Amino acid sequence: MPSAARSIQPASSSSLELLTIYEVSKILGSSLDLEQTLREVLRALSYQLQMQRGRVYLQGEDNTLRLVAAHGLSKDALAQEIDVQAGEGITGRILKTAMPVVIPNLAEEPLFLNRSGGRDDLDEQVASLVGVPIKAAGTVVGVLTIDRISDEGTGGHFGSDVRFLTMVANLIGQTVRLHRTVAEERRFMMRETFRVQKELRPVVAPVNDVVCTSSNMVDVLAQVHRVAPFKSTVLIRGESGTGKELIARAIHNMSPRKDAPFIRVNCAALPESLLESELFGHEKGSFTGAQKDHKGRFELASGGTLFLDEIGDISSNFQGKLLRVLQEQEFERVGGSKTIKTDVRLICATNLNLEEAVGHGKFRADLYFRINVVTIHLPPLRERRGDIALLARHFVAKFGKDNGLNLGIDGEALEVLNRCTWPGNVRELENCIERAATQCRNGTIRLPDLSCSMNLCNSSVLFQYRTMGAAVGGLAPSTSNTPTNPNIARAPQPASMPSAVPAPAVNVAWPSCASGCAASAPPGCSAVKPVPMPPSAILPLPTPEPAGSSLPAPSAPAPQPGSAAPDLPVDEPDSGPLRDRLLWAMERTGWVQAKAARLLGMTTRQVSYALRKYNIEIKRF
């Protein structure tokens, strides 16, 4: 009778192991979540065969074993990351030797590291460990270990446990290999899909209010489509009037943030103190007039896009404050101490040469590198002449729609517009069309309706002010070697960094009005005969003094024999003390210090200091 009982027990154990293998195979094929599947397998082993504290380690790309599934461990042990190197401890030895390991008593094993904790009861009971390698295609990819708890000593038959766990480990290895193959194929298919979509995507997709067919603007729109889906900071560069804000809005509208706010801030339009409050917000009572809490633009644009126009005009002090927000995406309101997190995509724009500003110490290098992630250069209108006729017709149709008129423009007027250099770019073209539309008769803009034909091309007058090749009001500088006024000697050009925006050819007499208006240089057009302007109508700006130069300014050198005398307005003192020049400039500009500073080539601060130094009383009107 006892022999019959002994024969029934092995048969019952074999049936239980077979049933457990069946359950494990069903679990491994039931889900694509590998970690969840492995936890269910360990739970089945514990429930069916009393194999406690099961653990599954898988090898990563760095050949380090990481605990990916466990059963019977505490929550603290599951929360921590447990990494094992090859040859380290019992688990590392199994990985290195690719052989099963049986530890009858963990309390007597020096290689037992107990990293997962929870084995402080080894003095009260005997804990044994059985570990087997997990193999896939003959390569060890992980380790499976279980614990056996006994109150009667280390006696037991571990051979059957090793055979059974080896079968389970082989099933796990095939599942891990299948999951990794599927994941790699999925990544490959996603890369291929993204590549094919990128190649098949139309180079020029419709962008609201962007009218272009020229190749350089087509390249700009293609770059807009490429950068729009991402969160990267974009720096839009180009001359004034080229449409930087339009491109910024197009990036926002084609991004995943299109339903979130698009907030615009003109950094040049606000003083530093007000700009800080506008961008970061302020707390109630932080300064005089702060009667309630005010959210800043960074807070209002959270989840959307913040467009900072004229980023190159902010002060050095504010550049440091802005840098922290861009790096950490957090800030404090003015007068507040609570740190506010924000999620903003930043788009910046400038018409300045930031590289030259960094070289002269006017712009922080760290802020330059932070905003100069993806750069989009907008070409000036003179480099996209194929778009001038399209833009002109677009602005004519827009004006007619806004005013309820049916307007057109004839070919001769379009030919004249196409020959103009447009120093003010698209903005100047739009203004020119609007002026002509208000003067036209019979619903068609003709050549006599253009400002050039009426001797009123103000942009040509503006560009008679040539200040050492620098930009005038954000517009492109003059690069012609021939001064507009032949009596004015050209100042030597200082060495500087190359411009970020390509300049026109040196041999081209630019800028000048193509239609030959009064302020332009030859050649003229048949629209109107050029009428020379008197020398006093064009006021040349003096050479600006370098920043930090001491006052008063040095006197002008004596004219050389045979050199042409400067053709200055009759009332401007061409030499003499700074006081006389200051009085002349202030009276000329209506006692506005900023205008007088521009006229003298000085900063407003220098003019204010000089007025106090010479005790010049400012006249009030």
Q: How would you describe the shape?
A: elongated
Please state the CA-atom Rg, rounded to the nearest Å: 39 Å
Derived structural class: alpha/beta
Helix content: 25-40%
Roughly what fraction of the amino acids lie in strands?
5-15%
Q: What's the count of strands?
A: 17
Low-confidence stretches: 1-9, 466-470, 478-512, 514-570
Placed side by side, the strands forming the largest sheet appear as 3-2-1-6-5-4
Residue-averaged pLDDT, rounded? 77
What does this structure look like?
This protein is an alpha/beta fold. It has helices at 2-28, 34-49, 75-79, 89-97, 158-200, 215-227, 244-253, 272-280, 297-300, 316-328, 354-359, 365-371, 388-403, 411-419, 425-439, 458-462, 578-588, 593-600, 604-613, and strands at 52-59, 65-70, 83-84, 101-103, 126-136, 139-150, 234-237, 262-266, 281-282, 294-295, 305-309, 330-332, 339-341, 345-350, 374-377, 408-409, 444-445. The strands form five sheets. The chain has a six-stranded antiparallel sheet. Strands 8-11-14-7-15 form a five-stranded parallel sheet. It has a two-stranded antiparallel ribbon with strand order 9-10. The chain is elongated. The model is unreliable at 1-9, 466-470, 478-512 and 514-570 (pLDDT under 50).
Layout of SSEs?
Elements: H1 2-28, H2 34-49, E1 52-59, E2 65-70, H3 75-79, E3 83-84, H4 89-97, E4 101-103, E5 126-136, E6 139-150, H5 158-200, H6 215-227, E7 234-237, H7 244-253, E8 262-266, H8 272-280, E9 281-282, E10 294-295, H9 297-300, E11 305-309, H10 316-328, E12 330-332, E13 339-341, E14 345-350, H11 354-359, H12 365-371, E15 374-377, H13 388-403, E16 408-409, H14 411-419, H15 425-439, E17 444-445, H16 458-462, H17 578-588, H18 593-600, H19 604-613
Parallel strand pairs: 7-14, 7-15, 8-11, 11-14, 16-17
Antiparallel strand pairs: 1-2, 1-6, 2-3, 4-5, 5-6, 9-10, 12-13
Helix pairs in contact: 1-2, 1-5, 10-12, 13-15, 17-18, 18-19
